[in-house]
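Lab notes, practical 5.
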Amino acid sequence: MASKTSEAPGTRQRRTGTSVHYNISYLVQGAEYGTDGAIVLLHDIPAGAFAWEEIMDQLGGLKRAVYAIDMLGFGDSDHPWPADTSVWGQADVLAYLLQDLKLVNVTLVGHGLGGGVAQVLATRLFRKQTRALVLIDSICYTHTFAENWPLTAMAKRQDFDAPQNTSLEDLINDMRSTLPAAVVNRDKFSKLLDTYINPWNNEIGKELLFQQVRNLIPYYLNSVASDLPKTGKPTLIIWGEKDEQTPVKYAERLHREIPNSQLVIIPDAGHYSLFDAGDKVAKAIVDFTNFVNA
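Output from the prediction step:
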């Protein structure tokens, strides 16, 4: 059952809900606006709800409840080990949570890994309650990661014995060298780098991160790819022009194949367009939400 706490209008709170047998933590802003028409934000790997805070600041004018969720194994949510943290596993857990929160006519917004989870929710597990879909630099089709993201030699990182063959020091150094490749504005991102890395900077965190990496299965989204054009749901596709992890060609393919979708390409932004151009990403979401609900 989702937790209930009192809050002053317009404030942002950290709450915890229970889904299946997991505790899932989330930020909620504008809960006083009710459960109809809420916006749900799903983060990338290896981030958490914190990645959306700048965007949330700029969504307040919509006067809608906005939820930024720490997906299973991230942030303040439970970190079970072993667990299914694939896009399907995450979507299964979140469908129960969102249903418990009684959210309807939801706009799902997913970045990277979160975009893959949003696709499963919108086409299968939370289809009836989803009003619209926003995909930001999203994993899609059979593409889930580049060879250098978020660690080098990703295929080897998925080996079962990879945690034992990788020292914690090497893992953290690897993250420090590869994560900044996802942004254009590295000075801004450098201030957040420790926020990304610290949750994994211990032996248990190392095991959990490798579990997340093992569950990045390229073909898991193929089963929903053919359903995206059939949902009939308004869809916005936002992409950093300089995204090297999920190149713009994937945005263009999504746009071609999803009828009446909207495509926004953001110049001078990489995979983490949320940080490179948070104001432009937020404006695109605001404009799209107003369009959908006009």
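Observations recorded by the TA: Residues 1-6 have pLDDT under 50 and may be disordered. The two ends are 33 Å apart (CA to CA).
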